[in-house]
Structures are given as structure tokens and as C-alpha cells.
Design a protein that fits this description.
The complex is a heterodimer. Chain A is an alpha+beta fold. Chain A contains two helices and five strands; from the N terminus they run βαββαββ. Chain B contains ten helices and 13 strands. Chain B is globular. Classes of the chains: A alpha+beta, B alpha/beta. The structure holds pyridoxal-5'-phosphate.
Chain lengths: 85, 376
Amino acid sequence: MSIKGELIAVFESTHETMRAERAFKERRIKVRAIMKPRVISSSCQMALSLPDEKHASAVAVISDEALRFVGFFRKSKDGQWTPEL
Amino acid sequence: MKRPVYLDNAATSFPKPRAVIKAIQNALENIGGSPGRGGHKMALTASRTLFSARMAIAELLGLKNPERIVFTKNATEGMNIALKGLLREMDNVAISHLEHNSVIRPLKSLEESRGIGALHAPADRYGLPDPARIPDVSALVTTGASNVTGAVADIRSLGKRFGNKKTLLIVDAAQTAGSIPFDTAGVDALICAGHKGLLGPQGTGFVWFAEGVDPIPLIEGGTGSESASDHLPSYWPDRFEAGTPNTPGIAGLKAGVEYIARRGIEAIREKEKVLCAMIIERLANDSSIILYPPFDLSARASLVTFNIKGEDPSEVAEKFSRQGIALRAGLHCAPSAHRFLGTFPEGAVRVSPGPTTTKTDIKSFFTALDSILKNR
Ligand SMILES: Cc1ncc(COP(=O)(O)O)c(C=O)c1O
């Protein structure tokens, strides 16, 4: 994981997360489905963890596939999750 | 015991492809966990199973927005979600003459609870809605193909007519999905059984809604999402899938859909037509048999309905059963179709070949028929 702290992408629903997972894999963006941390308020229980260097390409996939996206979040050293713009 | 020759595929398909059995077994052996509930590996596999099943179905049937595929336990549940979720107080509904009780009974109950009026749509000679004469109603409900006569509705023309109309087009594709290619453009709600032409196990089915067609959910409960809220989530499919789904069954349904995609709906249709042609040819040339229309193979699903003159259809089916042939007699849960055919209340005998039926099976049916007719 990068020194900046873990980066995750959150989607509207489980179905949408699965759709994102498939779209990322097709573009060779390695993601891992994880339990979404509770502090991130969104309806879906899951999130996709992805490598930092893939952030930009992930943004492109989300837009190309019109994925119902909630946002990116990053975990800081002190364990806080904050929205990544 | 020797397994009977199975000619009741219109009720539920049998035997299922090996891949279907294996997928169900694999799900039972390896997928612990509930889809959308929990993030451990097996729960994720369950979520992926439902997701990929929706994608495979959407691809096979040409449905947009796969998240709008709602899994149900059969076609009946799907039809209830559509009718009770979409129809409002005092709406008027037109139906074909050939509807199954999965349509008739919910409409009856809606007539009593919401004052909904149901009438027969102007029909073609086979009892199906005439696309040129669509009545001014809130919804038209039609079977894609009758499970009694086999008559196939012209969904493409109906869809074209309905494209930009306010009237909802609700199609019961229990006898068509996976068996007969059809165009879903203009369809607002499509109801399918998973256990018939799509070759999934019993206990599976789904209903799909077009974009902008948003029913009120039939049941509420846990979805694994938005759990802190007292309300269902607003998004698809969670909004319509409260409660733990039939994950092993859906895994089997997915395998069935993939099997059909590999063989091709067209190819299956052509093969079944050949089998139906054999049956029709044999029955049409027998003066002791009454064969029911349509006779044109391209206008009928893979089933042939007949009676032996002067015999009770149920007793005929029993005689076939004793000879090792499984077929179905009676009203087939569609009394209105039998009224249209003139076979109410005694019903008729129905032979329905499926994707795995062979010519040898049909020949066994002929042998049994010969013997039944000889021993009258
Ligand atoms: C035309 C038609 N509609 C609806 C149904 C009901 O299907 P299910 O038994 O899956 O609810 C059937 C099958 O019995 C059918 O043939």
C-alpha cells in the first residue's frame, strides 16, 4: 500500500460495486473488494481498495462506464478516513 | 426404476444441463454467506454470483439496466410485483384471452381492493392482443406465448405501438424466455420463470422493468444495505429484493442462461420446431384425435395440445404416465385459455418438448399413443 495511505472507491450499491470491480479488472486496474469502513456514510456495505498510481485511470473508468459513484476516500496515518477529491 | 420420458417442459424444464446441477452443487458446497451482507470472501462470491447472473440474463434477452432485473421465486411472484406495484386505484387493464392464473388472480384481487377494471383486449384469431387495435387503458398484459395453445404474441409490433404511449406493456415471458427469440423494445415489464426455458432450478424467476417504470415494492425487509434506515433503499435491485435470496438457485439459473447462450436461442427453437412438427404430423392425421390450433409452427411455442375423442384428458395423461411418458393434462392453471379454446372445464392433454428432448423421446410418445388408442 502507498505511503499516502489506503485509497478506496465507494459506489451506490453492491450491484454497482460489482460492476465497477469488473470494469476495473477489464482495464487491468487491480482492486480488492473490502468491507466499507462504517464512518464513511453511504448505503453500500462494500468498497474497492485500489493502488494509488491507478487513481487517475480509475476516475476515467468511472466516467466511461457511468458508474454510480459515491466517492474516493483515503485513510490518513492516524486512521481517519477523509474524502479524496 | 427407469426414468419416464419427460414431455412436460412447459411446466418446468427437465433434465437440466449438467452445468446447472454442478453450479448449484458448487454454490452449496463453496458459497457460505449471503450476497450483499458481510464482506468476507464467500459473501463476496455470493454477491458476484447474483451480479453475473443479472449480466448474463440481460445479455441473453437484450435487457438494458441489468440492475432492474429483480430475482423472484418464480414467474408468479414477478407478475405480482409488476401488477400490484404498478397499478393504481381505478386503473383499467386490458389482457389477452390466454392469460395464466398468475395474471388473472392478482387482477381479481386488485379489482376487489383497488377497483381496477380488467377487460379482454381486441384479439387476433388466436386470442392474443391485436397490435393494430390497442384499447385506451393504463396497462396491457399479455402472455408472450400461451402455455395452453402455444400461440406466440407479436411482442415486437406491440412494443412498437407502445414505444411512446402512456399505456404500460406488461409481458409474461414464462413460455418465451430462452425458448423463442423476441424483441423487448417498448416492453415496460417483463416477467420470466427461471425454471422453464432458461433451464434454471425451480424456485427461480425474475421480473425486469424498463427505465422510468418504478413499481412500489411488494415486500419490505433487510437488504444488507442502508440498514440503519427504517425504509428500503431507493435503488435497484435492493429496493425489490428484501430477504436472503436463493443464491444456489440463481447460480444454477446463471449456468442455464450460459448454456442457452452457447447453444443459441435460435438453434434451440429450430430443434424444438422439428420435434413439434413430428408430433403435429402424427396427431393431425389421426381421426380419433382433436388437435388444437395454431398449426403454423412459427406461430406456436414448443408445445402441442390435443384430446382423444370421447376421453377425459386426465385419464389419458394417466395412461401415458403408466407407459412411462410424463405429460400434463387439465386446465394448466389457465382456465381462460381453455374457455377460448372451447376445452373448458375438462381441459386437454399437452405435450411439451424442451431443449434436451430427443427424437427418440417423441417416438416413445408415439408408441405409447398407439397402444393407448389400440386398447380403447
Ligand atoms: C404463461 C405462464 N405464465 C405464468 C406461469 C407461472 O410460472 P411460475 O410457476 O414460475 O410462477 C406459467 C407456468 O406455469 C406459464 O406457463
